[in-house]
Amino acid sequence: ALVPPDCPECAALLSSIAPSVGSFGVSLVAVGGPDQSAQLADLREGVGTARLSAVSDPGEVLRGAYGLTGVTLLLVRDDGVVVDVVRHPTTDVHLESALVELVPAIGLDT
């Protein structure tokens, strides 16, 4: 999840998708810019350190590629291929069909 600065809805959103993501055995990662380390740590604490990892994108490469407005979910396979981009998701977003594509054992390509 690309997390914008000053994102009051991020904790609720990431908490709402963490169970689905976890049930597929997929990692949930919050990504922010180099000035967001405190925000990312707070998100990790709020969502749960076992359910959410947080990393900094020092060059903001992902933001440059996917934009700076709102939360953006990137669903990425182990080989680095992005299978879906969900811009401005809400807490009722359903990711199951895209998550299937991330897990080779149950994916539609197997």
Give a written overview of the molecule.
- There is one protein chain.
- The protein contains four helices and four strands, in the order αβαβαββα.
- The strands form two sheets. Strands 1-2 form a two-stranded parallel ribbon.
- It has about 110 residues and is α+β, with helices and mostly antiparallel strands.
- The longest helix has 14 residues.
- It is about 35% helix and about 15% strand.
- It is globular and about 40 Å long.
- The mean pLDDT is about 90.
Please write out the topology.
Layout: H1 10-23, E1 29-32, H2 37-47, E2 53-56, H3 61-66, E3 72-76, E4 82-87, H4 96-100
Parallel strand pairs: 1-2
Antiparallel strand pairs: 3-4
Helix pairs in contact: 1-2
Shape: globular
Give the strand order, joined by hyphens, for the main sheet: 1-2
β-strand percent reads: 15-25%
Number of strands: 4
Percent helix, as a range, is 25-40%
* N-end to C-end Cα span: 26 Å
Mean pLDDT, all residues = 90
Main β-sheet description? 2 strands, parallel
* Low-pLDDT ranges: none
Summarize the structure.
The protein has 110 residues and is an alpha+beta fold.
List the keywords.
two-stranded antiparallel ribbon, 110 residues, 4 helices, single chain, two-stranded parallel sheet, alpha+beta
